[in-house]
């Protein structure tokens, strides 16, 4: 058990690291962060901020030696780096869990091997292999880079008539996963924390809407049936058990029209869809992650109220810093800004959580809050 007062090391200093660090600090922990960027969001809230590439072995040793336990907030870390840290201090989730989840081929093969329902796929490593694989998929498909994908990057939706040579040169990666396009009615995610003892606690499912591959909003609780919600929790807990997870895992799911679920992705870390747990559950995903990696009892995740979370992307900053002041006059809104000094289109700059008596009311208030800011930035108004 790593009690408050000890130091938690975090590999990665983005917004997830910042929110983890802020929560850990409230609990009395010290924080050490490693990130290649000097001005990363977590650095100003860490006790020790190391600036070095993720494969700098001297910096990795310093992070390990400064910490009592180490976790990570980012998936594209060389697994060798985590293995090096793990030879000095405990790392949770285990580096081998990241090794599996950070690579789409390994992730899909794992899901298939243990019969977790997931989209049909084939692995391709050349234009010819893609051409041959495409003949076995009658409908639309999606070509996804095997490595380094995030926020919809490294993906190509393909029509049945797609030219394989052209698609292969466009995706421009050594290996990829070709999978069926899934006509889902809803995207869900389940975040589950698991202790070394095997006890696991899932948050109720979140409903997610993506735009161009990037999470646009999360609705809580998910507007799905009780049966589907129960099935989602059970899938997440079986996956966490199979991985022998210690820590937090995000399980992204597609819900089909008949209520059937397919597992899309696994993320062994705090997850964008769980940000609203800070305002809507007894224990936030950040605290739950800290509890799990420090060997503390897991917290209650009972929902407190419905809410919606909107990601605030750099596109809102085209005319400079938006005027946030009207938001503070709206009931139930909680603004989070990550302290990033440069806004680029698509960059996650912050998020807004709106709590209300119903999800519909939260969405209505969210539109009311965001539309003046969107209009000023030349973006279309949100309607639903
Ligand atoms: N096979 C698919 N069929 C339909 N939509 C998909 C499919 N795969 C991904 N998507 C859409 O793209 C989003 C991002 O894809 P995902 O595989 O989760 O990659 P990442 O989040 O790592 O960029 C998903 O949340 C979903 O909205
Ligand atoms: Mg995803």
Task: Explain the layout of strands and helices.
Layout: E1 7-11, H1 15-26, E2 30-35, E3 48-51, H2 57-66, E4 69-72, H3 79-86, H4 95-101, H5 104-113, E5 121-124, H6 127-134, E6 141-145, E7 155-158, H7 164-171, E8 176-180, E9 186-194, E10 200-202, E11 206-211, E12 214-220, H8 226-242, E13 247-255, E14 261-267, H9 277-280, H10 285-294, E15 307-313, H11 325-329, E16 333-337, E17 348-355, H12 359-376
Parallel strand pairs: 1-2, 1-4, 2-3
Antiparallel strand pairs: 5-8, 6-7, 6-8, 9-10, 9-11, 9-13, 11-12, 12-15, 13-14, 15-17, 16-17
Key attributes of the depicted protein:
single chain, alpha+beta, Rossmann fold, Dna Ligase, domain 1, D-amino Acid Aminotransferase, Chain A, domain 1, 4-stranded parallel beta sheet, 12 helices, binds adenosine-5'-diphosphate, binds magnesium ion
Précis, in short:
The protein contains 12 helices and 17 strands.
Report the CATH architecture of the largest domain. Answer: 2-Layer Sandwich
Distance between the first and last residues' Cα: 46 Å
Q: Roughly what is the average pLDDT, rounded to an integer? A: 97
Q: How large a portion of the residues is in β-strands, by DSSP E?
A: 25-35%
* CATH fold category name of the largest domain: D-amino Acid Aminotransferase, Chain A, domain 1
Bound molecules: adenosine-5'-diphosphate, magnesium ion
| Main beta sheet strand tally, sense and closure | 9 strands, antiparallel
**Count, helices:** 12
CATH class of the largest domain: Alpha Beta
- Total strand count, please? 17
Number of domains: 3
């Amino acid at each position: 058990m790593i009690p408050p007062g000890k130091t938690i090391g975090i590999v990665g200093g983005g917004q997830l690291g910042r929110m983890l660090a802020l929560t850990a600090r409230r609990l009395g922990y010290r924080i050490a962060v490693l990130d290649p960027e000097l001005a990363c969001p977590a650095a100003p809230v860490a006790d020790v901020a190391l600036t070095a590439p993720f494969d700098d072995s001297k910096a990795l040793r310093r992070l390990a030696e400064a910490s009592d336990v180490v976790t990570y907030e980012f998936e594209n870390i060389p697994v060798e780096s985590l293995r090096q840290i793990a030879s000095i201090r405990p790392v949770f989730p285990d580096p081998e869990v990241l090794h599996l989840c950070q690579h789409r081929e390994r992730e899909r093969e794992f899901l298939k091997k243990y019969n977790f329902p997931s989209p049909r796929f084939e692995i391709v490593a050349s234009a010819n292999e893609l051409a041959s694989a495409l003949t076995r998929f009658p409908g639309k498909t999606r070509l996804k880079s095997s490595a380094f994908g995030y926020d919809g990057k490294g993906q190509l939706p393909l029509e049945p008539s797609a030219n394989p040579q052209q698609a292969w040169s466009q995706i421009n990666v050594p290996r990829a996963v070709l999978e069926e396009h899934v006509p889902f009615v809803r995207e869900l995610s389940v975040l589950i924390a698991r202790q070394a003892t095997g006890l696991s606690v899932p948050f109720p499912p979140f409903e997610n809407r993506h735009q161009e591959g990037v999470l646009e909003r999360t609705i809580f609780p998910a507007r799905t049936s009780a049966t589907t919600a129960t099935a989602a929790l059970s899938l997440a807990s079986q996956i966490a058990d199979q991985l022998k997870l210690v820590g937090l895992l995000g399980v992204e799911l597609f819900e089909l029209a008949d209520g059937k679920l397919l597992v899309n992705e696994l993320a062994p870390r705090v997850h964008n869809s769980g940000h609203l747990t800070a305002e809507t559950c007894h224990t936030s995903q950040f605290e739950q992650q800290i509890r799990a990696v420090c060997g503390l009892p897991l917290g209650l995740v009972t929902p407190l109220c419905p809410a919606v979370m909107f990601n605030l992307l750099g596109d809102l900053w085209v005319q400079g810093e938006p005027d946030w002041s009207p938001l503070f006059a709206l009931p139930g809104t909680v603004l989070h800004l990550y302290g990033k000094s440069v806004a680029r289109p698509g960059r996650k700059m912050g998020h807004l959580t709106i709590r209300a008596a119903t999800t519909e009311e939260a969405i209505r208030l969210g539109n009311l809050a965001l539309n003046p800011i969107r209009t000023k930035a030349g973006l279309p108004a949100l309607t639903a």
